[in-house]
Amino acid sequence: MNIKPIHTNVVVKPKKEDDITKSGIILPGSSEKERPEQGEVVAVGEGKLLDDGKRAPMSVKVGDNVMFKKYSPDEVSIDGEDYLIVAEGDIIAILK
Amino acid sequence: MNIKPIHTNVVVKPKKEDDITKSGIILPGSSEKERPEQGEVVAVGEGKLLDDGKRAPMSVKVGDNVMFKKYSPDEVSIDGEDYLIVAEGDIIAILK
Amino acid sequence: MNIKPIHTNVVVKPKKEDDITKSGIILPGSSEKERPEQGEVVAVGEGKLLDDGKRAPMSVKVGDNVMFKKYSPDEVSIDGEDYLIVAEGDIIAILK
Amino acid sequence: MNIKPIHTNVVVKPKKEDDITKSGIILPGSSEKERPEQGEVVAVGEGKLLDDGKRAPMSVKVGDNVMFKKYSPDEVSIDGEDYLIVAEGDIIAILK
Amino acid sequence: MNIKPIHTNVVVKPKKEDDITKSGIILPGSSEKERPEQGEVVAVGEGKLLDDGKRAPMSVKVGDNVMFKKYSPDEVSIDGEDYLIVAEGDIIAILK
Amino acid sequence: MNIKPIHTNVVVKPKKEDDITKSGIILPGSSEKERPEQGEVVAVGEGKLLDDGKRAPMSVKVGDNVMFKKYSPDEVSIDGEDYLIVAEGDIIAILK
Amino acid sequence: MNIKPIHTNVVVKPKKEDDITKSGIILPGSSEKERPEQGEVVAVGEGKLLDDGKRAPMSVKVGDNVMFKKYSPDEVSIDGEDYLIVAEGDIIAILK
Predict the structure, then answer these.
(1) Beta carbons of G43 and G86 less than 8 angstroms apart
(2) Would you call C28 and D82 a contact, using CB atoms and an 8 Å cutoff?
(3) Distance from CA of B51 to the nearest CA of C (A)
(4) Bridge-partner residues for B77, per DSSP?
(5) Is this complex's ipTM strictly greater than 0.90?
(6) Residue ranges of the domains in chain A?
């Protein structure tokens, strides 16, 4: 991966709706309005800057399959594939 | 449970309105507008990040029957059942 | 009491307007707009989370007769009686 | 006084406009819009909660004659007399 | 002076526009919109409450000739003269 | 470079859309709305002021090729070339 | 200079647009909307109040040629010349 996010940014390869439905275990709820998205973490930032100048460890790591709120993440294309930049605070859970 | 919430997120299995009414002890008030929901905690996050980089312990644990504000929690379907992702700060009380 | 509030939430049994008027010592002011309500504390939360992860002691305790701002507290029915969930920060004073 | 304010709340017996004018030393300015009110402090709260869980001392004490911003203080009647609940932060000055 | 401001409040005797123009050294700029006012400090508050419960020293003292933003300071009449209550944060500079 | 940014400001030489497309590895996503810009860091500020008066190290350094949110960065022309002043918090990632 | 700014205020002698253009090295960008102004620092405040009551050192000093955001700085005339009062946080960079 040739992209190194800073702060608490996370690069996520979003799962296509079809793939989520096929895997079938964990799906967004039936409500259209509040359906979080899913994706795989491909790069993580440095962690939140603490008051003493240190960084808090990130709550997710590369390879985690995560569920995140779909506010308006920045989109980026790397080697022809689409990725999303998601703030760690918008990630809700790690799916196993 | 194949979902591990991060931050202060909590996965809650919401109780159906009928089940709450039947159990009958603790019910939402009569006002339509401010009726908190109830549910069972099935997974809890890591706890709030403190200034020193540690995590505060969560105030609820798996198995707790909780009452929470029904703002707009994210919905998720796991193994065909509906769950809600609720921020710990929106949980009001543990019901015994 | 089968309800254990978390954070700084307080469960209050509200006094009926008639009972307040009869007891007669401390009444809401004549202005309709800014009349705080009264009630008895029946359960208290854990206290505010401090920066070091400890909890500040609550300023009210079970049995206190309190006056509180009537913003929009959550309503709950326990054993058929109506209660309000009030944030400690909305409690103004303890009445003796 | 049968009322014990919590947090930084202060119970104030407001001075009537006539009494202020008669005493005559310190009066609100001529502008209608920004005229602070005056009153006597009859009960004070516990003081602001500090980060270490202690309380900061209150800047006013019982008996102080204070000038305060008239935002929208809660009104309360005690033994038939009207009082205002004023947040310490809305008190501007002590009058001697 | 029979008024003791609390918090970071400062009592200022405002200079009349004519007096400012006559003294002539430091004047508000030509723009009507952003003209700070001038005045003499006659009483100062206790200083900002710090996290450890101490007070930061005030940046102005009695006798200072100050320039301040004219948001909407409270007005007060003392012994028949008009004064303004200005928050320390709205004072821009000390004029020598 | 004759410009020394202060605080967390960063001077960035923005890449032209054509150059980004030609290099071709990392491109903004297809959505028009959320396309971050790219550029080369030519000067960095002092870092965020911490509570103890020290400065946190900057997350980017001169020469880094960065992707940043295009809110409304200040524009400046130096020796006839256009640069942008970007707050460190608006930089999302370093591209390698 | 007979003016001593307090807090993080800075007194700046703004450069005239013509003078900036003639010196010619560093110019505002071509966009009308986001053109920062330039000027010379003639007086600086005490620095930001830290949590422990100390002051952080200012990032600019008297004599610095600075670029700053032109929100709505207060204007002041000293000895017949126009100056701006700029908050340190609105200064972007020092020009050499």
Answers:
(1) no
(2) no
(3) 6
(4) A27, B82
(5) no
(6) 9-95
